[in-house]
Hints:
single chain
Amino acid sequence: MTFTEIAANALGLNAMFFEDLFMGNLHWAFIFYAVGNLFTGGKAPLLRGIMFYLIVVTSMNMFMVTGFTIFTVAGIGLLYFLRVPALLFLENTADMAKHIPLAWVLTFYIVIAASAF
Length: 117
């Protein structure tokens, strides 16, 4: 399932596609709902779960198009060495905790860009 396929069916208002997608992957629907609930403290878990799903799908598309992955020792190491200090800084700075989800996603895409070159 690619992001472009989902976007094409959304633009075409194909409700049966989304019903089949949801009912065929019911366990994933509940997992992403639980992730949205867990990571946001219960605030809009359905919306956040859909956002996490779109992040996963677009990442899979990026890996298929570019032909590489960051899930190697060097990629995961770089991801954690960038992510942990950024998240700790945002968590311990006043009024910056609201930017943690943005930092989480940006560090992921920065590592993808860095490993591509």
